[in-house]
Amino acid sequence: MKILLSISIGLLFSIGVFSQNSEDALRYSGYNLSGSARFMGVSGAMGSIGGDLTSINYNPAGLGIYKSSEYLFAPRYLHTKNEASYSGDYRYDTRDNLNFGLVGLVTSIPLANSGNSDVSGWKYAQFGFSINRVDNYRSDIFIEGNSYGGSKVDQWQNEANGEYPNNLNSFSSNLAWETYLLDTINGYPTQYSTAVPNGGVNQSYSSYSEGYKNEMSFAFSGNYNNRLFVGVSMAFSFVNFYRTTYLTETALENPEAGEFDYFSYREDLSTRGNGFNAKFGMIYMITPAIRLNAAFHTPTWFYRMNDNYFTRVDSKMSGGDNYSKSSPNGAYCYKLYTPLRAMGGLSFFVSNLGFVSVDYEYMDYGQARLKAYDYSFSNENQDISRDFVGTHSLRIGTEWRFHPLFIRGGYGFSTSPISSDLNDVYSTQFSLGMGYRSGPFYFDLSFMQKQSTQNYYMYDAAYVNPAYLESRYDFYTFSLGFKF
Fold first, then answer.
1. Distance separating alpha carbons of residues 412 and 449, to the nearest angstrom
2. pLDDT at position 18, please?
3. What pLDDT, on the 0 to 100 scale, is given for residue 16?
4. For residue 295, is pLDDT > 60?
5. Nearest CA to 455 among 148, 85, 75?
6. What CATH topology corresponds to 22-151+196-483?
7. Domain segments of the chain as ranges
8. Whole-number average pLDDT of the chain
């Protein structure tokens, strides 16, 4: 089983490059399925079901199903495990996170002819508000193994060749130069040799990520003749992302003169951003047993993204000398436009006993764009168009009622957002859930598991073999609601 990581970092890109690039576009364009325990219990296949506050973030027409008002609080617990195999060595790391998940309310207002089924027109209007954690970046990765033909220093050498030492990149190749991992070749002041040991190195890589993408949403919906439901929502997105990455290389044999015994590279990155998007949706009840839905999400316009970054290299050479060099503190402000999303589906009801629902979603990651006032991003945007493709997602969910208990289950998959020439990150998930509803109060529980298998590169794929990375995400959601 495979699943796209909430942010597929390491598939294409190396550590040590801080220019804003397609990595940023992929990270902040992605979404995890997230919402109430009922929504999670059916793997998000609720586009035509409605009657759940999570509809604000997917199909706001689902609020039109409400004929009463409701408060909802749905905290979420996430357990992540990453298992890596590199050069025959196996390592793993885990991370846990408890967050507020989803909180909000919806108010339903009866209109003039709501109680008269003989009169055609609008029956109810609804107003909704929610704050939802739509993506979670909390994850740790640990990789270790021996390399006999590649080093991070080789990447810095290629970057440095053709440049004088005083023109080297302050965040990468200059650090290698200052710590004697690179040296100029006699008679060739713009060509460099490396201090990589001929006997190979042990490579150890650790990545510690945390952060989130939250959406604060306001929605309006309506019910026309209890058959057509329409809705629109406006969402304000808030991104916080932090990552610290360490790469160490240690000589497997006693290093010779001019070779390193050990070096470590540290990279810190933090990003804060704000943006907004709009969502439009409809649900049409063909018969009491069959419903259709369609929804459209505009791109999220991140009008202000702020990156802050820092790098450091420490080395120990064969003679025992130690060197250290840190970069300046870097900062840059830019804009990001994520792709639009389109979705649709249908559901089948069996009287009041239960339903089966199917949702389809399309999103073309190749349409993401980076922009800035002082830089064109033409090369980066060409990379995005070339490397990323449209994704197709299918979700199937079911719920059955054994009053006052409800039992739920679901399954889903998505195709890869990355060109198959680069990597395969086809995704799957499954979920289970239950609920209890009696009177104005209700509660629901759900468990959803996502798994992935992928090739993960510690740095530029031209200089390192991939690690085989298996990731598992376990989501536990609890909902407590009150109808009035």
1. 11
2. 52
3. 41
4. yes
5. 85
6. Porin (2.40.160)
7. 22-151+196-483, 152-195
8. 91
